[in-house]
Amino acid sequence: MNLRRALAALTLCASCDVFDPALYQSSGALTLAERCEDLNAVPRLTPRAEQLLLIDTSTMGDQYREFASCVGRDLPGNEGFFSAQMRRGETWHFHVDVLDPTSDPAVYVLPTCTTLQCSAAAAADACGAGRGEHFSFRPVTDGVHLVGIDSRARGGARYTVTAVNAVCGDGMIQHGEACDDLRPQSGVRCERCQKVLDAPMGTESGVANDDYTNAIALRPNGGVRMFPVLGSLGGCDQDAFQLPLAAGERLTVTLTPRNGTCPPGLTLTLGRSDTPPMGGNPAAPTVVTEATVALTDQCPTLTLPRAASAGEYFVGLSASTEPAGEFSYQLTFDVSP
Length: 337
Ligand SMILES: [Ca+2]
Ligand SMILES: [Ca+2]
Ligand SMILES: [Ca+2]
What we know:
Blueprint: H1 3-11, H2 21-26, E1 28-29, E2 50-56, H3 68-71, E3 80-86, E4 91-98, E5 105-110, E6 123-124, E7 133-137, E8 143-151, E9 158-166, E10 189-191, E11 194-197, E12 216-218, E13 227-233, E14 239-245, E15 250-257, E16 266-273, E17 286-287, E18 292-296, E19 299-304, E20 311-319, E21 327-336
Parallel strand pairs: 1-2, 11-12, 12-14
Antiparallel strand pairs: 2-9, 3-8, 4-7, 4-9, 5-6, 5-8, 10-11, 13-21, 14-20, 15-19, 15-21, 16-17, 16-20, 18-19
């Protein structure tokens, strides 16, 4: 479920889902750096929990074609950079909102001004023209990180960028958090700001789970055996779920529509977090290529015949074509020896 919709539901604030002109008025304009080699020349965020920036790439150029590899597609539009001091294991969340219906932003975070450490888990370009992008990032090193705002559409554009350094356990639910351990909610078990399911859900609850950092964690007593999860998918977001697998175990994930049929373009992906946990949180997952996906009447089933190693696995559900309206589904997870 989309983070903003979930937060809107959580705070009963319907206007959270749309761009707020009042916020725009109070945001600070930030002039991005055109190049990223010299960190001293890249504007740095002041340390604050959340800030809104107004940026404009129209006077910049398209100088770093190589960073297209972060998102896996060409980014011929102008790009610019700002930076932030980050610490290993922190959770950062970035929203890039469009001010012009033809612009098509992409965003990536780089520990250095090279593609060497660029990964899909540190970048977002999931949505098309006229749509914003958002994603969470968990640094694996301490230090200044670069944030690049690029574009799938040629030329530059004005955007607002919300940068959030979410603090788990501060009693507030920030952008990028599904819940907070120190803010109890009825029906939600919250661990390290992730929703944890230890029993099947009676109804779908409005919890954001569109990233590995806020995936719904499946932890039923007795293991994951034909375990159902309810959700709804809309727009260009993905829904993310996390579960542990032991080496050699088999995983199947079956999607069934709750109403009608599956829309076209649905797919399931599988990732595994291989780096050691940071403060109890797993690092960004990498794609598990041994998993296969089969379609039956456009509904995907994911199968991992044998987990190569023990670890935290992440299942993502997304649609390459945006469903018309919300698509309500049930995912059934089954783990067997
Ligand atoms: Ca570019
Ligand atoms: Ca985009
Ligand atoms: Ca928090």
